[in-house]
Amino acid sequence: MPRLAANLSMMFNEVPFLDRFEAAAKAGFTAVEFLFPYAYPAEEIGKRLQDNGLTQALFNLPPGNWDAGEKGFAALPERFDDLKQSLVIALPYAKATSVKRLHLMAGLADRKDPKAVAAFRKSVTWAAEFFAPHGIDIVLEPLNARNTPNYFLNDFGFARDQINDLKIPNLKLQFDIYHCQILHGDVTMRMREMMPIIGHIQIASIPSRHEPDGEELNYPFLFAELDRVGYAGFVGCEYNPRGKTTDGLAWFKPYVGKKP
What we know:
The protein is an alpha/beta fold and 260 residues long.
C-alpha cells in the first residue's frame, strides 16, 4: 500500500497553513509534505507534526525569491553563495521536523550551457555532502516546461544520468508522475527503470493536476506496481483539489488506516 503524504501547500487550503496539519490528520493522512516552511518558526512546524502524529515526508530547500519567479539556484554559477546559505537556513527545519529528504531546486537556466551543468553538479554535491551527516537525502525533481518554463532540470534521463554519474549515496531522484507523463510518457517503464535511485514519488491527475482519480493514468495500477517493485518510500499528493479538499478524497479512502 502506498505511504501517502498530503501536500499542505496545495491541499487543505480552506484553512490557514498551520491548521492544515490537523486537517490532514483528521482526514486519515499519517504523513505530510509541503513546498516551503520558512515563513513559520521551525519549532512550530515540529509541534504541529508531533501534536497530530504526522511524519514529515519532504520539503524544498529555499528557492530564492519565489514571488519574483525564482525556482532555486543550483544551476546558476553566480548564486553558489546563496545556495550554501539556503542549506544553513533549511537545517533547523530539517531537525525540527525529522525529515529524511529535501528537494534541491535547480533554477531557471539553459541545460545546454556547460557552465550551468557544472554549477548544478557542484551545488548538488555540496548539498548532499552538507546533509549527509544528518541522515538526510537530497532529491532532484525534473519539472515540465508547461508548468515551469525554462527550468534547468527538465528531463528525467538527464537527472538519472547525473545521479548515476555522481555516485553520492544520499542523492536520489524525486519521481513526480505528473511531470514524467507530460515530459516523456511511458510512466510505468520509466518508474521500473529508475526505481533503484528513486527517493520520493509524487502524484496528480494528468493533464488537470487534480485528484489522482482518473484522466490519463490508472493510479490504482501504479500503486499496485509500487508494491510489486517493493517501493517503501512516500508518495506525495501534490495536486490541486477541484473543490473542498475533503470532498475529493474518495480515491484516498481505500488506503486510509492501512499499513504499507
